[in-house]
Amino acid sequence: MIRVEFIRQLRRGRTWGLFIALVLVPLIIGIANRNDTGHGGRRESNLFTAGTNTGLNFSIFNLLIMSNFFLVVIVAAVAGESVAGEATW
């Protein structure tokens, strides 16, 4: 049953849209951080730049940002679709 639901979810456009959002949000944050020169052409040291300086910090920073909203929405969308699909049967 889990395999059937997994295959069903992979065929939906909404699932692919959520996957694309999961990839694009960290990319946008990384590009914005890389291109931010601050005032006067020098980089300022703040919590955002300290959180995204290294790869490990960047991963943890993005996980903390995305876990507040995006991961909850993804779990709710997948679980809600499974429950609604069963209700129609």
Compute the average pLDDT.
Answer: 77
What is the helical fraction, as a range of percent? over 70%
> How much of the polypeptide forms β-strand, as a percent range?
under 5%
- CA radius of gyration is 18 Å
Low-confidence residue ranges: none
The total count of helices amounts to: 5
Morphology: elongated
Terminal Cα separation, in Å?
Answer: 14 Å
How many beta-strand segments?
0
Structural class: mainly alpha
Order of helices and strands: HHHHH
Largest sheet: none
Which tags fit this structure?
elongated, mainly alpha, single chain
Polypeptide structure, described:
Helices cover 78% and strands 0% of the residues. The mean pLDDT is 77. It is mostly helical.
Quick rundown:
With 89 residues, this protein is mostly helical. It has helices at 2-10, 13-35, 47-51, 55-67, 70-88.
Helices, strands, pairings?
Blueprint (H helix, E strand, L loop, with lengths): L1 H9 L2 H23 L11 H5 L3 H13 L2 H19 L1
